[in-house]
Amino acid sequence: MSMSIVKDSLGEGILYCKDTNLIYWVDINNNTIKKLDLSKTNSIQESIKIQSKPSAVISISNDHIIFLDDSGVSKLHLKDYFVEQVSVNKNLFKNTNNRSNDGVLLRNKKIIYGVMDHNPKHNSGGLYIYNNYDHEQFDEMGIPNLFLEIDNMILIADSFEGIIYQYDLPGLGNKQIWLDLSSHSYTPDGGCVGPDGLIYIAMWGGGFIAQYSKKAELLNKFYVSAKNPTNCAFISNNQMYITSASDDTTLDDLEKYPESGRLIKIEI
């Protein structure tokens, strides 16, 4: 079931808050933060246009959300939709062709996120850890995505290379390949850890959500009517919302994948 009123050019960065029963996500290309209130029977969607380019929602509270954008880390106050710049990553201003991409708020309250070039190539982007207003780069990457904290590791996908890496936590050392999909026509984008402890990854260009064990064993594929699913979030044990993009789709693609660019709800 599709829930979006207006198709997203590049829907991404979805996050669900059980306490508020709200879903937030972004349309990167249209500088928009979107909200879906699941407590209302008609699930009203709201679009919030902002000046910066948001890329991922990191946390949700009753009065504000924290999100990544082309300056670094920002806060959207929900009472008046005022955007407060929390902390600037100076490297983003040194290279105006860069912007933030996906990221995650870790259990220890630190934020790990990625920066990518608008014209990505091998290692043209970077991985950063943000803590106490300091942005420290710890690795390079083409298009950083995924950012899943699992036990004592974090999974980060390089969507440009089609490879998912794992890093040990808390030190972010011992980098290893968790899964190599570089030979496929699709590439890993965002994802989430399900209530079942399994890993769900949106496959850009593949039109499906892949389900993996923690040992990177492919268990299932859940196909959707969007060619480029970008991220996903569970709202219950068996219900998932998926963001997608209408960007990078042809007219033939849109005929085959008519929900491209919409927020899609599926049952697992």
The biggest sheet amounts to:
4 strands, antiparallel
For this structure, what is the CATH class? Mainly Beta
Strand residue content: over 45%
Give the CATH topology. Answer: Neuraminidase
- Mean pLDDT value: 93
Give helix and strand order, one letter per element, not per position: EEEEEEEEHEEEEEEEEEEEEEEHE
Helical amount among residues, as a percent range? under 10%
Describe the protein's architecture and organization.
By secondary structure, the chain is mainly beta. It has a single domain, classed as TolB, C-terminal domain (Neuraminidase). It contains two helices and 23 strands. The strands form six sheets. Strands 1-2-3-4 form a four-stranded antiparallel beta sheet, with no helix packed on it. A hairpin with a 5-residue loop joins strand 9 and strand 10.
Short summary of the structure?
This protein has one domain: 6 Propeller (Neuraminidase). With 268 residues, the protein is mainly beta.
What is the topology?
Elements: E1 11-17, E2 22-27, E3 32-37, E4 45-49, E5 56-60, E6 64-68, E7 72-77, E8 83-88, H1 90-94, E9 98-105, E10 111-117, E11 125-131, E12 134-141, E13 144-150, E14 153-158, E15 163-168, E16 176-180, E17 187-193, E18 199-204, E19 208-212, E20 218-223, E21 228-234, E22 239-245, H2 251-256, E23 264-267
